[in-house]
TrEMBL record:
The lineage of its organism: Bacteria, Bacillati, Actinomycetota, Actinomycetes, Streptosporangiales. CDD domains: HAMP (cd06225), HisKA (cd00082). Residues 165-217 form the HAMP domain. It comes from the Bacteria. It catalyses: ATP + protein L-histidine = ADP + protein N-phospho-L-histidine. This is histidine kinase. SMART domains: HAMP, HATPase_c, HisKA. GO terms for molecular function: ATP binding. Pfam families: HAMP, HATPase_c, HisKA. Its EC number is 2.7.13.3. The chain crosses the membrane at residues 20-41, 141-160. PANTHER family: SENSOR HISTIDINE KINASE TRCS, SENSOR HISTIDINE KINASE YKOH. Keywords: ATP-binding, Kinase, Membrane, Nucleotide-binding, Phosphoprotein, Transferase, Transmembrane, Transmembrane helix, Two-component regulatory system.
């Protein structure tokens, strides 16, 4: 529930989210339609107004010219000196012309002129009412467009919420799968038959999760089976190596057998961690004592710095396993001096080597990889076991390369 609320809040506040892109697209489309309709209506109204104004002016002019021809008097004649030059030039013999005078935008006129017997007769009609009518129509178009936007844009944003919610569910499920929850499903795949693209993506994510879970379980079963099958002949090797006569060759064989036994035990531990068979037995633990005991068990040297008398409610056996692997890894792949700092509920192991490789910092520990140059870049089983045991006791294990150099593994209980 909280994840859904967080995703919804992030989408609401993110200006690049699909919701706002759809709302922006609808807004642009509505503005384009309103602009096109407004321009067409304005243009049509303008042309209709000009035509009607011209007809009125020509009708009045024709009536006055007929009166002049009958009586010799033109009552509405304008002062020839007041005629616009453009109108006087356009007036032809016998053919009346019109001209829209907008030299004063607030007081427009429609002129009609006709040349009769070498004399130009002209009059004008007021177009102010038509201008105000067009301006009122333009305002109404703008207000109507704004009102439509005020209704359409929120509706578009709300309509986009449904696909947004489904996409967030798919993204949330993908993140859970990436974090190791192979049982996570979108629940959208059931409706993929005949559905839309989002349902198809959901079904694909579910199928990918099923395939990935099957592959990982096959790998886990293979690792566990190999480790169990190796235990019996390994115990025979341990017993047989103990019966060999003393000598350099015997010491070499016994050392290799010990390494093989440690590898098999690590594989068994990893298989138990993968199967979820490991459970913590927490109790109050003095962290300084656990760290000192773990360091003594390795037989390696490190400088331990403890602040106060920190204690934690955790599983001491699993914490010992974590700290031991971190110390061994620091000596094996780093350089001395190795420093262990215990502060509050945090244990940090720092070495002065080249630092953790980038794949480890980016993706975390991966089994069967080591930072030894002869075995390629990466890490081995030690950090993988430390990561798994940290998850069992509810601790957080992080790997960093400090600016001053070296590598630091930090356990936060």
């Amino acid at each position: 529930m909280w994840d859904s609320l967080k995703d919804a809040a992030d989408a609401l506040l993110n200006p690049r989210s699909l919701r706002w892109k759809i709302a922006a697209l609808v807004t642009v489309a509505c503005c384009a339609v309103a602009l096109a309709v407004g321009v067409l209506v304005h243009r049509s109204t303008y042309e209709l107004s000009m035509s009607a104004g011209g007809e009125r002016a020509l009708t009045a002019l024709t009536s006055e010219v007929d009166t002049y021809l009958r009586t010799g008097r033109f009552p509405a004649a304008e002062d020839p000196r007041a005629l616009p030059p453009a109108l006087e030039q356009a007036a032809g013999d016998g053919e009346p012309v019109t001209w829209y005078d907008d030299r004063r935008p607030d007081v427009p006129w429609m002129w009609a002129a006709r040349r009769v017997g070498g004399r130009v007769f002209a009059l004008k009609v007021d177009m102010g009412t038509d201008l105000r009518s067009r301006q009122a129509l333009d305002r109404h178009i703008v207000l109507a467009a704004l009102a439509a936007l005020a209704v359409v844009v929120p509706l578009a944003a709300l309509t986009a919420e449904l696909p947004n919610r489904r996409l967030r569910r798919v993204a949330r499920t993908a993140r859970r799968i990436a974090a190791g929850d192979l049982d996570a499903r979108t629940a959208e795949g059931l409706r993929a038959r005949g559905g839309d693209e989002i349902a198809e993506i959901s079904a694909t994510v579910d199928t990918m999760a099923d395939s990935l879970r099957a592959r990982l379980r096959t790998e886990q079963r293979f690792t566990a089976d190999v480790a169990h099958e190796l235990r019996t002949p390994l115990m025979g090797l341990v017993t047989a190596s103990g019966l060999l006569p003393d000598g350099t060759a015997t010491e070499l064989v016994q050392d290799r057998v010990r390494l093989l036994r440690a590898l098999v035990e690590d594989l068994l531990e990893i298989s138990r961690l993968d199967a979820g068979a490991e459970h913590a037995d927490p109790r109050p633990v003095p962290l300084a004592a656990v760290v000192e005991a773990s360091l003594a068990k390795t037989g390696l040297h490190a400088h331990v710095e403890v602040t106060g008398s920190p204690t934690a409610d955790t599983d001491p056996r699993r914490l010992d396993r974590i700290v031991t692997n971190l110390i061994v890894n620091a000596h094996r792949h780093g350089r001395p001096p190795v420093e262990i700092t215990v502060t509050g509920n945090t244990i940090a192991v720092h070495d002065h080597g080249p630092g953790f490789p980038r794949p480890l910092l980016a993706h975390g520990p991966q089994r069967f990889r080591t930072a030894a140059p002869e075995r390629g870049q990466g890490h081995g089983l030690g950090l993988t076991i430390a990561q798994g045991q940290s998850e069992v006791i509810g601790a957080t294990l992080t790997f960093t390369n400090p600016p001053e150099g070296g590598a630091t593994a930090t356990v936060r209980l």
